[in-house]
UniProtKB/TrEMBL annotation:
This is DNA polymerase IV. InterPro entries: DNA/RNA_pol_sf, DNA_pol_Y-fam_lit_finger_sf, DNA_pol_Y-fam_little_finger, DNA_polymerase-Y, DNApol_IV, Rev_trsase/Diguanyl_cyclase, UmuC. It comes from Flavobacterium saccharophilum. PANTHER family: DNA POLYMERASE KAPPA, DNA REPAIR POLYMERASE UMUC / TRANSFERASE FAMILY MEMBER. Its EC number is 2.7.7.7. It is found in: Cytoplasm. Keywords: Cytoplasm, DNA damage, DNA repair, DNA replication, DNA-binding, DNA-directed DNA polymerase, Magnesium, Metal-binding, Mutator protein, Nucleotidyltransferase, Transferase. Binds 2 magnesium ions per subunit. The record marks F14 as: Substrate discrimination. GO terms for molecular function: damaged DNA binding; DNA-directed DNA polymerase activity; magnesium ion binding. GO terms for biological process: DNA repair; DNA-templated DNA replication; error-prone translesion synthesis; SOS response. The keyword Transmembrane helix does not apply. Poorly processive, error-prone DNA polymerase involved in untargeted mutagenesis. Copies undamaged DNA at stalled replication forks, which arise in vivo from mismatched or misaligned primer ends. These misaligned primers can be extended by PolIV. Exhibits no 3'-5' exonuclease (proofreading) activity. May be involved in translesional synthesis, in conjunction with the beta clamp from PolIII. It comes from the Bacteria.
Length: 393
């Protein structure tokens, strides 16, 4: 039996959320993002007509579309509405994967036996829009890759259903850039040897492709041929990552404790970025020498940036540690995780900050976590026997 996989994409999600609360923003070029030195987090279709795109520097976007209105963005609003959408989908769909704050995969295999899959999905889409006021596009096909590509095409052609026997004819005329894993470098590499459409790529022998691109060559060839066996992974809000440090000798050294906390945050934030998670809830835990244990938590806008999370953790620790007794344990936990492509806080960070994080992560990926660390957190040693790194679900 063929699978039935739905991809739902909330159209220009941040822009649509802002317009939901302020109708005066309807119909005008709108850019959501940081200040003058920041980057575009999202933009309206009116701004896109001028060439504005997500992740573009704000100053470049303003040159292309000087009449655009720029808004910093309200991540709390976006997170709340994303949660509302998730609840509506989970109430109806048997298996749901929340791929990002505004993207969802649904496995509805078998529904067609009792109720048409497309009709069911269309009714769910109407329900989401009616209850939230937010527009969306969906595509229904046999796997995640084809459905995601279908959603991109559906923004111009309305919602699509791509049955198994039409998958290849649907994919063939499209640019290879439509395949999710094809970035600019891969596109340029393949273009130089005349591979620009999915049809040409699908007909290429897989061995030369693997030699050119490496281990991803086979996966790319499969996607070009409409093959993707990746399952829809059920989403849960309860996932978290955490780390705790138990001292060999109880301490009251606040400076040392703050340095240790910063190192713990840096390690966890790097793990978030490496695994493409964003956190929305930060918790700090302390245990006194008499074994009294206290915790304090705070909600944050979805992020995986050290400097933002460090500030939150430091603030929580200062509010939590009031008794001035010696501590035997401290811990940090990030929860309320969601998959996403927004690697760091693009609403506040500059181009330089984005480049710094990317460079640091490249060095850590190549040479190990200890290759580059902030001075304040350098005293935190991830290999310390007393440290416990946990991942909960």
């Amino acid at each position: 039996m063929s699978r039935a996989i739905v991809h739902i994409d909330m159209n220009t999600f941040f822009v649509s959320c802002e317009r939901l609360t302020n109708s005066e923003l309807n119909g005008i070029p709108l850019i959501i993002g940081g200040g003058e030195r920041g980057v575009v987090a999202s933009c309206s279709y009116e701004a896109r007509r001028f060439g504005v795109r997500s992740a573009m520097p704000i100053h470049m976007a303003m040159k292309l579309c000087p009449q655009a209105k720029i808004m910093k963005g309200d991540m709390e609003l976006y997170s709340r509405l994303s949660h509302d959408i998730t609840e509506i989908i989970q109430e109806k769909a048997p298996v749901v994967e929340k791929a990002s704050i505004d993207e969802f995969y649904l496995d509805i295999t078998g529904i067609d036996k009792f109720y048409g899959s497309y009709k069911w999905t269309n009714e769910l889409a109407h329900r989401i829009t009616e209850q939230t006021g937010l527009p969306l596009t969906f595509a229904l096909s046999v796997n995640k890759t084809v459905s995601k590509i279908g959603t991109g095409e559906g923004k111009q052609k309305q919602n699509l259903e791509i049955p198994e026997h039409l998958v290849q004819s649907f994919l063939n005329p499209l640019s290879i850039q439509k395949i999710p894993m094809v970035g600019e470098k891969t596109f340029q590499l393949l273009s130089r040897i005349g591979i620009r459409t999915i049809k040409t790529l699908s007909e290429m022998p897989v061995e030369p492709l693997q030699q050119m691109i490496g281990k991803n060559g086979i996966e790319l060839w499969k996607k070009a041929n409409g093959i993707d066996n990746n399952p829809v992974e059920p989403y849960t809000e309860r996932k978290s990552i955490s780390t705790e440090h138990t001292f060999s000798q109880d301490t009251i050294d606040v400076a040392k404790l703050n340095r240790l906390l910063q190192g713990m945050v840096e390690k966890l934030a790097y793990q978030l970025r490496s695994e493409e998670w964003l956190t929305s809830t930060v918790t700090v835990k302390i245990r006194y020498a008499n074994f009294d244990t206290e915790t304090k938590q705070s909600r944050v806008a979805y992020t995986s940036a050290d400097h933002i999370l460090t500030g939150t953790v430091t603030d929580l620790f200062n509010k939590l540690y009031q008794r001035r007794m010696r501590l035997r344990l401290i811990g940090v936990r990030f929860s309320g995780l969601v998959r996403g492509t927004y690697q760091i806080d693009i609403f506040q960070d500059t181009e330089e900050m984005l480049a710094l994080y990317q460079a640091m992560d490249r060095m850590k990926n190549r040479y190990g976590f200890d290759a580059v660390m902030r001075c304040a957190g350098a005293s935190f040693k991830p290999n310390n026997k007393n440290e416990i790194l946990k991942r909960k679900s």
